[in-house]
Amino acid sequence: MAAPPAAFAQNTLEEVIVTATRRAESLTDAPISVTAITGDELLQRGVLDSLGLGDAVPNLTIGTEGARDATYIAIRGVSQNERRNTDDATTPMFIDGANIPRMSGVAAYFYDVERIEVLRGPQGTLYGRNSTTGVVNVITNKPNFDEYGGNVQLGLGSYSATNAQGAFNLPFSDSFAARLAFIYQKHDGYFDNGPVVDDLNDADDIGVRAHLLWNIGDATSLLLTADYYNKDAIGNNSVGVPCYTDVPCNIGLGISGDPGDISLLPQNFRPAGEQQSFRDNSDTNFKFELNSSFETFDLTALVSSREHERDYNTGTSRDEFLKGIPLDSGVRETTKSESINAELRLTSNTDGPLQWIAGLYYLDEEINGNFQFQPVYVGGPFIGKHLNVNFIDRNLSIESQAVFGNLSYDLSDVVTFRAGVRYTDDEKNKGGIASDPSAGSYFRVWITETGTIFGPPYRAQVANPAWNETTYDVGLDFAAGDNSLFYVKFSTGYKAGGFNRGSAGPGSNPRAGVFMLDIYDPESVNAFEVGFKGTFMDGRGRISIAAFLNDYASKVESVVRLIGGIPTNTAVNATNVDITGVEVETSLLYGDSGGRLDFGLGLLDATYGEFPNLPDPILGGANVLDVSGETVLNAPDRSFNVSWVPVEWSVMNGTLTPRLQITHKSKYKTRPHGLDVDIQDDYTRSNLSLFWESDDSGWFGEVFVRNIEDEIVQSASGCGNVAQGAPSGTFVGCTKMFQAPRTSGLRVGYRF
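The chain above was modelled as a monomer; its predicted structure follows.
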């Protein structure tokens, strides 16, 4: 019988080092609301991707969108929900210091991780690049020069899941080392998708990463990184759900009860012989990082090249008919994004009261793609035919430049003054050519079966807006002894605007096939925050508390409205969003048997100040809704997470650690409309695991159950007409996307 030995009791919590302020410092010394989770902790908490991260961090909610693999990160009640290439994330993700321009496929980086840092609040000075809500930093494990080693592990689980991953550290000399890492994930779909198609929410992913580290001298190092990730299968696509309860559904696009029982009208059913739904998305990335120390400052030069490709097909084949015509539709997209990120940063390294950081940033991205939507046409002479709406992007470009600086000055042994400023210049060009519509970005509309063209054969998409903004922050820190810190700060943030494809703004000439696109404005935020961090119980306890007030202007939201009679995803500016809230995080070691409790609490009050004339897809995009004063999307007013290790046991010459992870979120919306289909009700999800690791042989293993309650949680929703050529609202369908149901499994690994 295993007994809990006193030897497991830790004297103090392990110090956590973060780089949230672009300097390595203790978590309790960083004057910012930040959560840091190590790679081992992520695995034991069941955080395998970006969705799982939302269950471990206060005031963080994450959603996904379909075969694009788009990820929407909401911090403190604000997120991006516009999913097209012209918009930017409000919470960017950085991988080893390099910004990821497209939020498609960001779940690809959650393997061989040293730690993940979630910074809450605007980061408009040191990070910039649209970080109006915060930043997610993923820091991977780097090579070391000590010894050969690594780990391999294999996991098996429900839905025929297989997970294999590993890493190898290869020191070739005292100054040159490499690290190789890989991951392979595959599982069957969670939701039925018809008799001839693989189920929805399946996975077939593979990723590899290589680091080469060269210590050129005592003060200079060069890190080269290459990684590749491919996501295959069908992925997290939509499923049909009931329409709004207060508006009759004219066709039965629905399910009832548990989404896991979907069988009547699977979203992506295609008859045998027709092209089935699929996803083939990949990321290929290279990074160059040079670090060199001089007498008074350190230099960091970072250049990353990223190539993101998407190729997916989704379609519906309904059992509903109009005059014998099936109401089916399809979406096919191929997109390629190529970007260069560069940053040059100087950081002081002296011991004086003045510390500073200065830098330059540059982004150049080019996007080429083809988006094709084919709904059935039910009006006029083309009844039963398919309307083909085809958007072509050619040389869509996004360019961003910035210069920034940050300083801190110790006014005394107790008080530190901090300030920072950043100037950003953004330009976006759709790539359309007014003088020759077919030569640049364009869209066209025709009947698939007959080739009959609606309007001009090519409709140039012309837009070239530019913006610039100065963001800043200022604050004071108060060191109350060696183990606690009070801070107060005011900061601003800015996110570039964009344009709406298919729209016809001022200066358009539709007859000539020239469309000057509608421009939507940038969004900005003013944020005030006060916080406290400290340790207690002689280092066995740690706590962080933050209270904040955020005022957003021109918040960008994605809606559906009619453009040329076609329901089209568009971005609009809400007048303003007001947010107040509190976050509490604490960790505590207790008892003499390895007990540990980690707790996070988030409270939010996030509402639209003014948001009238919101297009309603149920009524064909007419501006009929007013959500002023209502809650914003992805903003539960309360959330908490608990990670509890009650005890550790000595078992079979090793340590057995049970862990219970609980996440609770109150009701929230997944679209700004806030009608029935958009609501995710309160839910609680729990994970339970037993982790064993040998004291001396290197073997480890785990058995786990995730989402014990089998809660079906939606991550996105949408509604709109599924047929063209009919009166607005005649053929309305709604869809949702869901996170994983209950899963279980085991993994076995070896460290060497």
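The mean pLDDT is 86.
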